[in-house]
Amino acid sequence: MNCNNHIINNEYAANQKKYLKSLLLFPLITFLILLLFTSSNYCAASEINLIENSYGENKPMAPKILVAYATRAGSTAEVADAIGKELAAGGTMVDVKPIKKVQSIDGYQSVVLGSAIRAGSLLPEMTDFVYAHKDDLRKVPAAYFIVCFILRENTEENRKTANAYLDPLRAEVTPVDVGLFTGKMDYSKLSFWETFIIKYIVKAPEGDLRDWNQINTWAINLLPKLINSQKEK
Ligand SMILES: Cc1cc2nc3c(=O)[nH]c(=O)nc-3n(C[C@H](O)[C@H](O)[C@H](O)COP(=O)(O)O)c2cc1C
After folding, report:
1. Whole-prediction pTM
2. Which side of the chain, N or C, has fewer Cβ within a 10 Å radius?
């Protein structure tokens, strides 16, 4: 009888332990999930300058070009703005805006689309946009550019990889030109987990490696392709 009581007491204690453990684990897991969620959203778009500019507004008869971009940390926005300025300096009217704010490409004679690269891919809003507007985009000259970090080592193989990032867009709409640009790594613009991965796992150093001369030259050479390869609407 005593022995039976002892076994029952042991079972009871073990069950109590299990219960207490699960009671502690639940808030701990919830806390970790919340931490993951909030930290990945920490440093969201509010801290990033989502540039929206119009250039060449004093030339109402000039061709109108849309330069739309997808960014996470802001560097692609600045590249898009530099391209927009350069295209306008060549005598066009240009709107520079985040792709998420573009409803349609009506009213634009040509379009330039640029995306940051994350985890080996274009940002989803860029691929979604091209897919959604492919019929309209096929009727106008369109150019693509990417801003990435793989080109910080400018090898043949890395250029191939960077060029291949654009394949999903090429599959929908053939561009008149593509620009492959090295970007910027600024840990202060990344979430906790992104910083952790980039700093300690990928080990990509911080730095602004954008080559403004290359970017501006690309835009200057792009202009005649955007103007002269007008397609039948
Ligand atoms: C989490 C993360 C993942 C990235 N993945 C890639 C990648 O797969 N390939 C690449 O070339 N660059 C990659 N980069 C580098 C970015 O493309 C580069 O920093 C770019 O300038 C970011 O553009 P943004 O500032 O407009 O967001 C990555 C950067 C971060 C923060």
Report:
1. 0.83
2. N
